[in-house]
Design brief:
globular; 3-stranded parallel sheet; alpha/beta; Mg-chelatase_DI-like; Magnesium chelatase; VWF_A; two-stranded antiparallel ribbon; Rossmann fold; 47% helix
């Protein structure tokens, strides 16, 4: 499956999750990460319109500041939990999991250290790996899943409905609020 097809499935899944969140009165936040930055581009909301507008203009490619993305996601979730301690947070990462930008020194160690925090706080994490099938495979996403018990899927094996179904199943019947 080519890069464009993988991106189409990724964006379709996010759009479907936004629609699902709107219908169930849940919230979704989105962090975009590429080049040197990882930024919260969609604060937790159930606004389908805002989310779809951001998705249309979401660029891809380039460097992968994965540790920043994991760190910013963790911080955003922790902030949301402080506001509403009754939520059941789920972090969904769609990436090739090939970090190459560090926050300080060692981008691989940073990713594992932050994932340790997700695991300690029992935050459900879903990793959807967009790394294309090839002879040379980095496999960081799969390693993270094995080490911390995260859900792990290859994008090539999923369609839009599968990703929404996985999130809903983990959200206890689709109801993210306790």
């Amino acid at each position: 499956m080519g890069a464009m097809k993988r991106m189409e499935v990724s964006k379709g899944a996010i759009s479907s999750l936004l629609m699902d969140a709107y219908q169930k009165r849940n919230k979704i936040g989105m962090i975009s990460f590429r080049k040197e930055e990882a930024e919260l581009i969609l604060p937790f909301t159930s606004s389908v319109e805002l989310g779809e507008k951001l998705l249309r203009n979401l660029p891809t490619g380039g460097k992968t500041p994965l540790s920043k993305a994991f760190f910013n996601s963790y911080e955003a979730i922790k902030n949301e939990i402080r506001k509403n301690p009754n939520i059941i947070p789920i972090a969904l990462f769609i990436s090739d999991f090939k970090p190459n930008v560090a926050m300080k020194d060692d981008y691989i160690k940073e990713v594992f250290d932050i994932c340790e925090k997700f695991a300690e706080d029992e935050i459900t994490v879903i990793l959807v790996d967009t790394e294309p099938k090839s002879f040379i495979k980095i496999g960081i996403g799969e390693n993270l899943a094995k080490k911390y018990g995260f859900e792990y899927y290859k994008i090539d094996d999923l369609n839009v409905g599968d990703i929404v179904g996985i999130v809903n199943n983990l959200a206890i019947g689709g109801n993210i609020d306790r």
